[in-house]
Amino acid sequence: MNWLTLPDVADQLGVPITRVRQMVKENKILATRRDGVLRIPAEFVSDGMVLKGLTGLLTVLRDAGFSDDQALEWLFREDPTLPGTPIQALTENRGTEIKRRAQALGF
After folding, report:
1. Fewest Cβ atoms closer than 10 Å to its Cβ: which of 28, 53, 77, 91?
2. Are 105 and 58 in contact (CB under 8 A)?
3. Structural domain span for residue 49
4. C-alpha to C-alpha distance for 86 and 99, rounded to whole angstroms
5. What is the structure's pLDDT at 30?
6. Which residue from 50, 39, 54, 44 is spatially nearest to 95, judged by alpha carbons?
7. In DSSP terms, which residues pair with 39 in a beta bridge?
8. SS3 for 33?
9. CA–CA separation, 10 vs 21, rounded Å?
10. In the chain, what's the furthest Cα-to-Cα distance?
């Protein structure tokens, strides 16, 4: 997994770093500390935007009781039934399928 710092994400999105911090605070994007620095998975940013469907998927995972670390693990865990990982499926515009799977985790 590749990681971006908050300034890197701000550059890619073309917004001030304060906006990225607000997005993290509002749970629109997930960040975690790595080596003492708050970082965001590079896969969460694509073509100057937050990956389509990510914010809603993170909400579903949180509603299912996932912590941020558990959500990251789930998003990047290989799933032979997809195939690939949920984050790969999301980048391939299969967000509905991934969101449905995430909703099923809560039951």
Report:
1. 77
2. no
3. 3-105
4. 9
5. 95
6. 54
7. 5, 32
8. strand
9. 9
10. 39
95 dihedral zone (left: phi>0; alpha: psi -120 to 50; beta): alpha
The neighbour count for residue 24, using CB atoms within 10 Å, is 17
Closest CA to 74 of 48, 39, 104, 34: 104
Number of domains making up the chain: 1
Q: Is 38 left (phi over 0), alpha (psi -120 to 50) or beta?
A: beta
Q: Which amino acid is at 20?
A: V
What does each of the 107 residues of the chain score in pLDDT, given as a tens digit? 899 999 999 999 999 999 999 999 999 999 999 889 999 999 999 899 999 999 999 999 999 999 999 999 999 999 888 889 999 999 999 988 899 998 888 75
Read out DSSP for 64-96?
Answer: TT--HHHHHHHHHS--TTSSS-HHHHHHTT-HH
Q: Which two tokens stand for residue 86?
A: 């949920």
> 39-59 pLDDT, tens per residue?
999 999 989 999 999 999 999
Token pair recorded at residue 80: 């032979």
